Every structure is written in structure tokens, then in C-alpha cells.
Amino acid sequence: MDKAPAAQDPGSTTSKRERILDAAERLFAEGGFDGVSMRDIAAAAGVGLPLIVYHFETKKNLYRALFDRYKAVLDARLAALRQPLEPGEDALEHIVRSFVLPVIQSQSDEAGLAYARLVARESSDPREAERGIVQDYFDPFAIEFIRAIEQALPELGSDYAHWAYLFAVGALVMSVFDTRIERLSAGAFRAGDIEHKAGYLVRFIVAGIRAGVARQS
């Protein structure tokens, strides 16, 4: 008789690999690529340094693996963008919802928040071009969104569409880092209320982009 497959040991290689990634994500989100060593990650994950080298070889490979883990978020944004418009749906609102909602929804737990902070830190790092993360993972996605803005508002021109996208990125990134809403509102509003935050952010970005149409008119 064949034996049933054994249950996975919580201390197995696979679970240790995920533990390494979880620890690396937290540390890189806090300290940036240059502020964290492989030994720091090994200590935080509770594993030996040789195991990290076995799985990833270099710190850069480990770093890139973190972005591979969340490729589904980028794919979800592009899938939403490529969906046909519903009858009566505004093209610009469709674009901005596709840009915002998958990202905000991914922040519903600590892991998602850590990844969002990691993306924000990497994109604002003066040395990010050396690693190619933004270029490889985010630029192709950005180009498609810029084209969608150009098609939705052709009267504004390519120059405006490019800047509109980058300013929208700034608003989205700040929504991750800035939790002062609770302090400024004396606790009336919560930074973790992602449903309301997403709705307000979509309206804010749409209004900002559409302001160019009103000004040109």
C-alpha cells in the first residue's frame, strides 16, 4: 500500500524560504536596500546565513524576489485597466480605479503594508537605477497607464499625461506612508480604513487630472 504524503514540517526548507522573505521584506521596508545586511535578515528570520545564500545567492537576488512575490498586484492593475468600460462608465475614472484599488486592497494586512512601504522606499531611493527594480517591474506598467490617459484625454497631449501619471504615483505613495489622519482628526478618521481611503484617493486623482481639461478649455 502506498503511504500518504507526509505533512510539511513547519521547519522545512520551503517554510524557511518564506520566513526569510518575510523578514527581508520588513527589514528592507524599514532600512532600505543599503541599510540591511544578509546577516541582519538571517538573524530576523532565525536561520543561518548559508541557507539564505543557498536560496538567493546574493542580497540583490533576495531583494528582487520580494517584488516577484507581489507581481500579482501589478497584474491585477493591468487586468482591471484592460477591462472594457461598463455602459456609461467614465474612462478616466476607470483608469484611476485600476491604478489605485488593487494597491490599496493589498494593504489590508501587515505584509501588504510592508510591501507598499518597500515599493515607496525603493522608488524614492536615489540609487534605485543601479538595481533596476523600478525599470523592470513598474515602468512597463506605467507606460500602459500613460497611454490610457492619453487616449482618454487626447486634447491634453503626451506631456500632460506623463506628468499626470507621476503626480498620481506621488499621491498613492503618500497614502501609504502618511498616517497623520488619525492625529489630525483627533481619532475621527482611521488610516486603516482602506475602503474610504481608496474612494477619496480615486476622486482626488481624477479631479487633479481633469483639472487640466478645464484649464485648457
Q: What does this molecule look like?
A:
The chain is mainly α and 217 residues long. The protein folds into two domains: 13-67, Orthogonal Bundle (Arc Repressor Mutant, subunit A); 70-216, Tetracycline Repressor, domain 2 (Orthogonal Bundle). It has helices at 13-31, 38-45, 49-56, 59-69, 71-82, 91-105, 110-123, 128-131, 133-152, 157-177, 181-184, 194-216. The longest helix has 23 residues, at 194-216.
Quick take:
This protein is mainly α. 73% of the residues lie in helices and 0% in strands.
List the main descriptive attributes of the protein structure presented here.
Arc Repressor Mutant, subunit A, 2 domains, 217 residues, disordered N terminus, 12 helices, mainly alpha, Tetracycline Repressor, domain 2
The succession of helices and strands, N to C, reads: HHHHHHHHHHHH
Q: From the helix content, strand content and strand pairing, which structural class follows?
A: mainly alpha
The major pleated sheet works out as: none
- Beta-sheet strand percentage? under 5%
Our Rg estimate from Cα atoms comes to: 20 Å
Poorly predicted regions are: 1-11
The gross shape turns out to be: globular
| CATH fold-level name of the largest domain | Tetracycline Repressor, domain 2
The count of domains is 2
Topology:
Layout (H helix, E strand, L loop, with lengths): L12 H19 L6 H8 L3 H8 L2 H11 L1 H12 L8 H15 L4 H14 L4 H4 L1 H20 L4 H21 L3 H4 L9 H23 L1
Helix pairs in contact: 1-2, 1-4, 1-7, 3-4, 5-6, 5-9, 6-9, 6-12, 7-10, 9-10, 10-12
